Amino acid sequence: MSYKVERVNPYDPERPKQEQVSELFNEIAPVYDRMNGVLSLGIDAYWRWEALRSLRGYRPEKVLDLATGTGDLAIEAYRMLRPKQIIAADIAEEMMEVGRKKVRAKRLEQVISFERQASESMSFPDNTFHAVISSFGVRNFQSIDQSFQEVLRVLKPGGAFLFLELSTPEQSPAKELYALYSKHVMPVMAALFTKNEKEYAYLPNSVALFPQGREMMAILNKNGFRSIRLRRFTLGIATMYLAEK
Questions:
Q1: How far apart are CA 144 and CA 119, in angstroms?
Q2: CATH no. for residue 88?
Q3: How far apart are CA 164 and CA 174, in angstroms?
Q4: Distance CA 131, CA 105 (A)
């Protein structure tokens, strides 16, 4: 099944989304952390921290941070969960290079390593990880179903899949305030970091068309996950999903 968000591309509707997403994030890698903090008004770190708290009961020893970007979730996962190993995977090498510098600065190279992996076709063996985590990356997947099936494959039985995504508030007045922010404020703020209009238009467009709430829970269930839960943050601006293999 195809979802509308899979057809939202940063540049060209005729080119594969995975290729364009890699190009986009390699381009904005040097400014990504500052841009992300500004666009989220600095709340993104709180969302990651709160989401990861949900994994403490699983005590994962081997963790995959999928679509890791610059590695913030992987670093926070080590601080909170203390696993023996974290593999941080992404398709954008320039983003991961920023993450590698952060990890070296914190002297965490023995725990956190980076690998280029596409979510739709990972090279890891079956039943490898106790937990797979991701923040703000699922909406960039070329195929959500195929990626979720890969996540299920590489998870150990009983393992947890936790991901955090931006979402559209469903209740007033947050719904109207977010619409105003995403349509008028976000493009202006994003333009401070990039001069390419398509780059900063991609974010609100992908958020608007991303399946959320019960629809996303149904997608997880369809792809074989169980014990599916969600939690909304900051009036529904971000949503955490947690499911088990």
A1: 9
A2: 3.40.50.150
A3: 19
A4: 25
